[in-house]
Amino acid sequence: MKKILIVCVLLIASNQLLVAQAGALTTTAFQQKMATPEIQLLDVRTAGEYQSGHLKNSLLADWNNQAEFTRRVKYLDKDKPVLVYCASGVRSAQAANWLAANGFHDVQNMQGGLSAWKMEGKPVEAPANAKQLAIQQYNAGVKAESVVLVDVGAEWCPPCKKMEPVLAQLQKELSGSYSLVKVDGGNDIDVMKELKVTDLPVFIIYKNGKETWRQQGVVELSELKKQLGK
Q1: Phi/psi of residue 47, each to 5°?
Q2: What is the DSSP letter of 125?
Q3: Domains (range + CATH), the chain
């Protein structure tokens, strides 16, 4: 019994040590660390909050949606620094502690969140107010060529960012053999609804105007080549 108790105490202490790794930074220190090479900047607010204004180059994983949060952050690199922020610093502190407890080695939270950041006049990326891709445009696009690959993603989506070099390599290797149609998962809401897409990224292949294959999440280059070549 004594041995079991000792093991439990050690496990608890170990977990507390991991949580303690998640530090807190002032907005100025946070801004300075944003310039660190290979930094990963994570916004843990909702999609609606993100669209209303966010820090440049930040990725999005909603802390209030635990399934989405855990699914997205698994595509972050645990060995590279992670800076976390939210509206006031509460959610980001919780998210930062979770990340530290789950193997991320350098995690820091912004004190006061985006509210404090704005009050100090620091820069925020404003919503682009981009025009939505119309359903008619989408349908015309997937029928324009005999083979079409649709990429439904967003700049703020961690797994979508992971797919960028894969898609670049795909276009390099199969240039001219297919057409690429991009759907902005943060803006083209009508198309998203039409396609019944609820999570990102999603890849769809059309051949002669008909959907022949679809997959959600990160896809291997070999799989994309295989499906496009069928």
Answers
A1: -60, -40
A2: B
A3: 2-119 (3.40.250.10), 135-229 (3.40.30.10)
Residue with tokens 């105007």: 209
Structure tokens at 211: 């959907």
User: Per the structure block, which two tokens stand in for 167?
Assistant: 């898609």
Q: Is 160 assigned a catalytic role?
A: yes
pTM of the model: 0.78
The three-class DSSP label of residue 88 is coil
- pLDDT digits 0-9 by tens, 118-145: 989 999 997 766 788 999 999 999 999 9
| Contacts for 9 with CB less than 8 Å, ≥ 6 apart | none
Of the residues 60, 114, 157, 224, which is catalytic? 157
CA nearest 66: which of 88, 86, 95? Answer: 95
Q: Which of 96, 107, 160, 195 is catalytic?
A: 160
- Measured distance CA(75)–CA(205) in Å, rounded: 24
- Dist CA 11 CA 17 (whole Å): 10
**Tokens (6 digits) for 10:** 């050690």
